[in-house]
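Why do we bother with holo predictions? Because pocket geometry can differ from the apo form. Keep that in mind while you read this record for guanosine-5'-diphosphate.
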Amino acid sequence: SDDISPSPHIEYDRLLGGLLIEGFDEKTCRSRYQFARYHKSPSIPSLYLIERLRKQEVLQKKCGPGTKAYKEASKQLSSGHTINTTDCNYLILIIHAGLGNQMLEIASAFLYALLTNRILLVDRYKEIDDLFCEPFPGTSWLVPSDFPLNYGEFTQSSPESYGNMLQNKVAGGNTDRSLTGTRPHYVYLYLNGDYGFHDKLFFCEDDQQFLQGIPWLIIRTDMYFVPSLFLIPGFQDELSRLFPEKDTVFHHLARYLFHPTNNIWYSVTKYYRSYMAKAAKRVGIQIRIYETKGILQRNGPFPHILNQILSCAQNEKLLPEIGMMEGAAAETQNKGAAAETQNNQTIAVLTTSLSSWYRDQIQKKYKEHPTVDDTTVKVYQPSHEEYQRSRNRKHNMKALAEIYLLSMNDELITSGFSTFGYAAQGLAGLKPWIMFRSENHVAPDPPCGRAMSIEPCFHQAPFYDCKAKRDGDLGKVVPYVRHCEDVSWGLKIV
Ligand code: GDP
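The structure, written out:
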């Protein structure tokens, strides 16, 4: 039945320390109140965060689709007049890219909405409701289908983009208001990885003050831009009240926002109970390969990556070393040792990868050789999709199930650079061992290193120092925003 806890002896707090509230229908979204059973959080959310989430829920309900305020505001948007008669302001997020990226962009947009008293609406384009339940009570976070702006056509060069407004001196922070006078009724924020100098001024204080007065913001991003919000002076006090433990932003917000739909959750919990629940220890290994060898060998097989995985796991004592003997001799020795030490512990390894080769090879090694401490190692992998197909419904559902399964391990090894891994470590609240990127088909030495924090990395973080008005090293401004372990030019909260 659905109510069997994987670890019935462990007390769990279904509301995640107050992040969630009672009152949602449990049957239509089982994961919401059940995820608590499957991970141990290292942190409790601050009372202030909880207070602000409740306020945000009130705002989402008051200003959301179907309300008088929403009708009023969207009428103004289509007419082009701004007579701000309501106190409802909006942030529309255009969702795209892979699933890991999507989770990072939604969490970032939500935090920005919270900081600027806007409601967050996400676009339907990716059929987000196949993947996630509604997070806010009594309202919907999906942009209604009759939304007046065709934002799907906006690109980096659209004149509506904030960067272009600044560049064309139409409007913006720091521009001479006497020249321009008018405020646009909406602004498009282009914050994709390939954004330009003017787009990045979004992360400056003056520009934030300008944007504060715009009722509709439409944001397109594929990144976790939270670290740069921590560098904007106007947000700093509020952020430290919300997150006294700074490196828990994604952990709390992701557990607040994301609740996989029943189909996905059913496959997650079934898999967990079948293969992971009974093991003495669970180790998740996320294998994401960016190297190619010709067009046919996208995910390998690459023996140097297999070696990297094994030496990382064994050096860091996440998996036992294997003995030297092979075949029958090994088996005899195995039996003998087992009789002596009575070690019948099992480690369950959950691998995720687009390829099945790595899982098969790791399993083969542990099957053919005894381990030095006689632990049994079993390796499981739920799927091997071969290619990334971000617009395929079933494919995305499998990917989400695997992100959640990864988050249910006791230890994690992830592939550097990958937002898929960031999402899993963030949900889990685990500091993973990050496998660094190999170059020219040679695995790096050391093969992996421990992450400084559980936070995701902001890959294409800006390096413009707004105060000094020139480029600077933004990884050295405050002690809690540093360069990432895996992406030297990126920023992360530690
Ligand atoms: P990133 O590209 O590694 O940063 O992660 P994203 O999640 O943004 O994009 C990669 C996409 O490829 C995922 O959303 C999946 O669709 C697919 N993918 C990559 N690795 C895996 C995996 O281990 N399992 C499954 N099921 N899909 C994967």
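The domain at 262-493 is CATH 3.40.50.11350 (Rossmann fold).
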